[in-house]
Design a protein that fits this description.
The complex is a heterodimer of chains A (113) and B (114).
Chain A lengths: L3 E2 L4 E5 L4 E7 L6 E7 L6 E7 L4 E4 L2 E6 L4 E6 L8 E8 L7 E3 L3 E6 L1
Parallel strand pairs in A: 2-11
Antiparallel strand pairs in A: 1-3, 3-8, 4-5, 4-9, 6-7, 7-8, 9-10, 9-11
Chain B lengths: L3 E4 L2 E4 L5 E7 L5 E7 L5 E7 L6 E2 L6 E5 L5 E5 L8 E8 L9 E2 L3 E5 L1
Parallel strand pairs in B: 2-11
Antiparallel strand pairs in B: 1-3, 3-8, 4-5, 4-9, 5-6, 7-8, 9-10, 9-11
The chains are: A mainly beta (113), B mainly beta (114).
Chain lengths: 113, 114
């Protein structure tokens, strides 16, 4: 049972345009979400997070939006740059005592110069 | 600043062999984690250590053991390797075991079991 779903395995965007990466979750206990970015042959690196008490969090070119009623979150990258080409993982915390991250399968973003 | 260091980076084992994956962090973090990532899948938690002296099972602990050797080091042992354990293994650490503390990952160990 996949609790965090990233239904688009890949996404291609032109440099300078907006990239929108989507994530859906099924576990209503999730109360904190994170996005990680991963380059080939490297470990994931933390990008941005959002608490369930918010519907938006911004950090420079990266904005995460959370729609709790739809159990959906999205990561917006504006403007997209070639260096943003990576795999992006959405992850959720259930907060049910164990504080374990549940990751989605990832979306591979390619930013075309 | 090394962050989280994993050794080895690559390893090939035969079924039934044993192996220990090493992880060390130099950020003075209290909590450490072991994940595995299978092709086309997200990371899944194997074991974690919220603080020195404690370890707990994650989502997929079967076939693994861990040791929190000291605050810096957290090792993962496969006692009798099976082909289903072929994966990329990531170690991570965080300042404390909290939802608000992002985890910092090493570059992974690519393990193949024949």
């Amino acid at each position: 049972d996949q609790q965090v779903k990233q239904n688009s395995p890949s996404l291609s965007v032109q440099e300078g345009r907006i990239s929108i990466l989507n994530c859906d979750y099924t576990n209503s206990m999730f109360d904190y979400f994170l996005w990680y970015k991963k380059y080939p042959a490297e470990g994931p690196t933390f990008l941005i997070s959002i608490s369930s008490i918010k519907d938006k969090n911004e950090d420079g070119r990266f904005t995460v939006f959370l729609n709790k009623s739809a159990k959906h979150l999205s990561l917006h990258i504006v403007p997209s740059q070639p260096g943003d080409s990576a795999v992006y993982f959405c992850a959720g915390y259930s907060g049910a005592g164990s504080y374990q991250l549940t990751f989605g399968k990832g979306t591979k973003l390619s930013v075309i110069p | 600043n090394a962050g989280v260091t994993q050794t080895p980076k690559f390893q090939v084992l035969k079924t039934g062999q044993s192996m220990t994956l090493q992880c060390a962090q130099d950020m003075n973090h209290n909590s450490m984690y072991w994940y595995r990532q299978d092709p086309g899948m997200g990371l899944r938690l194997i074991y974690y250590s919220a603080s020195e002296g404690t370890t707990d099972k994650g989502e997929v602990p079967n076939g693994y053991n861990v040791s929190r050797l000291n605050k810096r080091e957290f090792s993962l042992r496969l006692e009798s390797a099976a082909p289903s354990q072929t994966s990329v293994y990531f170690c991570a650490s965080s300042e404390v075991h909290s939802v608000y503390q992002p985890q910092h990952f090493g570059d992974g160990t690519r393990l193949s079991i024949l």
